[in-house]
Amino acid sequence: MSRNDLDPSHLETLDRDLGRVSKLNEAASFSKRPVIGLGVALAFVGFAALLAALIFGGASNTLVVVIAAAFGAYMALNIGANDVANNMGPAVGANALSMGGAIAIAVVFESAGALIAGGDVVSTVAKGIIAPESMGSSASFITAMMAALLASALWVNLATWIGAPVSTTHSVVGGVMGAGIAAAGFAAVSWGQMGAIAASWVISPLLGGLIAAGFLWFIKSNIIYTTDKIASARRWVPVLVGIMGGAFATYLAVKGLKKIIKIELGDALLIGLAAGLAIWLVMIPVIRRQSEGLENRNRSLKVLFGIPLVVSAALLSFAHGANDVANAVGPLAAIVQASTTGDFTHAFGIPLWVMVIGALGISFGLFLFGPKLIRMVGNQITKLNPMRAYCVALSAAITVIVASWLGLPVSSTHIAVGGVFGVGFFREWDAERRMRRARAAIPGANGLSPEERRRRKLVRRSHFLTIIAAWVITVPAAALLSAGIFVIIRGVLEVS
User: Fold this and answer.
1) I need a labelling partner for 320 at 20 to 30 A (CA). Which of 2, 283, 410, 412 fits?
2) What does the pLDDT look like over 84-98, one tens digit per residue?
3) Can you name the residues that pair with 348 across neighbouring β-strands?
4) pTM of the prediction?
5) Residue 318 CA to chain centroid, in angstroms?
6) CA 219, CA 212: separation in Å to the nearest integer?
7) Are 165 and 377 in contact (CB under 8 A)?
8) For the segment 364-386, what is each residue's pLDDT rounded down to a tens digit?
9) How far is the C-alpha of 413 from the C-alpha of 311, rounded, in Å?
10) Are 76 and 325 in contact (CB under 8 A)?
């Protein structure tokens, strides 16, 4: 019997049933993804523990190092899931990169930054938050570092789950502070350093936002709002790309290559100036060729910012891998140092196998769990295009340089997300300003109603408030969690 011989009502029922089966298969496939991701993550944690066991063999301290390696791998996974999104989110949100392309670039450049230029020497635990000698014994110090590592990883995991990009370095700082207080009291903490870090909660995003907004204002005034947009782009885009190249050359010289060669800020600025001038001269014919045949409208301008945006995302990832990954696995390196030598008061290097765990962990974490935060930063805070995302990336590099010059501790997470906020709030202000001018030119025109004003907001206030709240409570939350874990671990050890 053919399909045409069936009763029409039977055909409709069959179609509905096939549709349900199709949707059921899609739902089953979707539901498997978190399970597969969790399985791969657990396998990587097991690999890190096994690697530590093979390296240390049958030494008396092997179990401690194995557990710490598992905690360090868990932390590295969370860095990839949360922190790396700040570098890739703007490029993905601007459609300059696909999600797959962003993940591939981040995996390569984050790992390269961590392994080539990362982990030179951590002179003091978590940048001098606590005085190691106040711990009294290596056993107490190791317990505190293990608590700090686990607590910071748990907090970043929670922040990723709720969709809040937070600073992994600040999480580690909070974890070390909490464990230090639980182990040796409030006097063990360097409160002056903590005050500087607290100030960076405000300085980092404000500076990043102001610089991003300033460059967006420049692009709008000198390119977008001009009569001949293409001619203006030919004049100014090479200059902007040259500024970006010079800024990143300085950024990498100051922060990204310090393990390979030590470069002072003044010399780094000269390197950046030379690189910027060279890139500006090279980009003049490139932009002229790219702009041939483009229509005189805003959509055409996006083409000219695509490649610089991709390059900036790659360079940000390299610098992030060289710096933040080393900070995050610092407690693991401290545990290895104290376990193997008994010394926990002097400077310690980060062993290669620890950096390998960090590099592989961020790669797995980004691939398995990173897309959620990449979409948040790139799409859900405010709408980005290549020009706006370019301003965010450029502000990140310049803000780090300015902060280094001023001697301020800053967070790359806060800078990047602050840049996104700055671009969004500037667009709101600029749209309102242009609308007021238009109404002023029309006699008798009325202003917008409060409902219409709320509808025209270009930054999602719910995400803004969630992220700010997460930033504010990161250090105290990680500190409380770490203190609790320290007490539990110490209690278990005393009972055993």
Assistant:
1) 283
2) 777 788 888 888 888
3) 122
4) 0.82
5) 12
6) 11
7) yes
8) 888 888 888 888 888 888 888 88
9) 19
10) yes
What are phi and psi for residue 285, nearest 5 degrees?
-70, -30
- Looking from the CA of 449 toward its CB, the CA atoms found within 13 Å total 3
In the block, which residue shows the tokens 């700040």?
Answer: 86
Structure tokens at 358: 């960090």
- Confirm if 106 and 335 have CB atoms less than 8 A apart: no
Q: Would you state the structure tokens that stand for residue 290, as one six-digit string?
A: 């790219």
Asked whether 192 and 405 are in contact (CB, 8 A), the reply is no
How far, in Å, CA of 194 to CA of 304, rounded? 43
Residue whose token pair is 């991701």:
37
Assigned token pair, 249: 């050359």
Domain ranges of the chain: 36-441+448-495
Closest CA to 177 of 201, 203, 155, 144: 144
Q: What are phi and psi of 169, to 5 degrees?
A: -65, -45
The 3 state secondary structure assigned to the chain is CCHHHCCHHHHHHHHHHHHHHHHHHHHHHHHHHHHHHHHHHHHHHHHHHHHHHHHHCCCCCHHHHHHHHHHHHHHHHHHHHHCCHHHHHHHHHCCCCCHHHHHHHHHHHHHHHHHHCCCCCECCHHHCCECHHHHCCHHHHHHHHHHHHHHHHHHHHHHHHHCCCCCHHHHHHHHHHHHHHHHHCHHHECHHHHHHHHHHHHHHHHHHHHHHHHHHHHHHHHHHCCCCHHHHHHHHHHHHHHHHHHHHHHHHHHHHCCCCCCCCHHHHHHHHHHHHHHHHHHHHHHHHHHCCCCCCCHHHHHHHHHHHHHHHHHHHHHHHHHHHHHHHCHHHHHHHHHHHHCCCCCCECCCHHHHHHHHHHHHHHHHHHCHHHHHHHHHHCCCCCHHHHHHHHHHHHHHHHHHHHHCCCCCHHHHHHHHHHHHHHHHHHHHHHHHHHHHHCCCCCCCCCHHHHHHCCCCCHHHHHHHHHHHHHHHHHHHHHHHHHHHHHHHHHHHC
pLDDT tens string, the chain, 496 residues long: the values are 554 554 555 555 655 655 554 554 544 444 455 678 788 889 999 999 999 888 887 666 788 889 999 999 999 999 888 887 777 888 888 888 888 888 888 888 888 887 776 665 454 555 577 877 777 788 888 898 899 999 999 999 999 888 888 888 888 889 989 999 998 888 888 888 788 778 877 888 899 999 999 999 999 999 999 999 999 999 999 999 999 889 888 877 876 666 667 788 788 889 999 999 999 999 999 999 988 888 888 888 888 888 888 888 888 888 777 777 766 678 888 888 888 877 776 666 778 888 888 888 888 888 888 888 888 888 888 888 888 888 998 888 888 778 767 766 677 788 888 999 999 999 888 888 888 777 777 765 555 555 555 555 678 888 888 888 888 899 999 999 999 999 998 888 776 5
